[in-house]
Amino acid sequence: MERVLIADDHPMVRDGLRTVIAVAFDQCELFEASSLDEASAVIAREGDFDLVLLDLNMPGAVGFSGLIALRERFPSVPVVIVSAAQERGLARSALAAGAAGFIPKSLRRSAIVDALKTVLAGNFYAPEMDEVESAETLEDADIQHRIDSLTPQQKVVLRLVVAGKLNKQIAYELDVSMTTVKAHVSAVLGKLKVFSRTQAVILVNKVKFGTDA
Fold first, then answer.
1. In whole angstroms, what is the distance from residue 67 CA to residue 90 CA?
2. What's the pLDDT score for residue 143?
3. Which of residues 116, 140, 164 is at a domain's end?
4. How far apart, in whole angstroms, are the C-alpha atoms of residue 19 and residue 13?
5. How many Cβ atoms sit within 10 Å of the Cβ of residue 24?
6. Does residue 23 sit in the same domain as residue 86?
7. Residue 178 covered by a domain
8. Which of 26, 97, 137, 180, by CA, is between 20 and 30 Å from 62?
9. pLDDT tens, 31-53?
10. Which structural domain range is residue 169 located in?
11. Which stretches make up the HTH luxR-type domain (predicted)?
């Protein structure tokens, strides 16, 4: 981990997280922000970050609005919510809103480091919940993350695949060539990390993709 932004309006929290990260990750460049606008400005000015640690409640943000705003503006930057709130279902909601993880401020330092390493490894992190609920939450979030990586046109093609349309039918409905459809389907399978249309349909049905079409 080379570059991390700590976005929290409490200086003591920022100092605490800075200490944890500096000790656990050697030569990591740390940046700080005390509001959502400041965080956005830092990311825009400094470029990509390996991780952004975002307080759930800070100036310029209400609920998950800050998380959603950062994810929309900087989709390639992983954002982890760090919060003192621990209401049941909050971690699930954070993941569903696009967070790469949810870290309660009450966690031990060693647990915070483990959580950050989990996210840096490309996985989602949530605090210990009911084991089955936690597993299902992380799986759903992972599937949604794969779907979100699709372009708008690829999502349209995926919806038609889920609806049972053949390639020639998709080509007719979208008024494109079969070659174009095959290229889209191939790209969709790659981004979803599956090997067949059937696997793709089974995967996205787990998060009810296409039911709102």
1. 13
2. 86
3. 140
4. 10
5. 16
6. yes
7. yes
8. 137
9. 999 999 999 999 999 988 889 99
10. 149-205
11. 143-208
Q: How confident is the model at residue 83 (pLDDT cuts 50, 70, 90)?
A: confident
Among residues 31, 93, 42, 44, the alpha carbon closest in space to that of 67 is found at 93
Domain with residue 75: its CATH number is: 3.40.50.2300
Q: Is residue 210 part of a domain?
A: no
In degrees and rounded to multiples of 5, residue 79 shows phi and psi of -115, 125
Q: Is residue 58 part of a domain?
A: yes
Eight-class DSSP state of 125? B
Contacts of 81 (CB under 8 A, 6+ apart): 54, 55, 56, 67, 94, 99, 101, 102, 103
CA distances from 66 to 34, 69, 96, 176, 187 (A): 12, 5, 14, 39, 31
Do 153 and 134 belong together in one domain? no
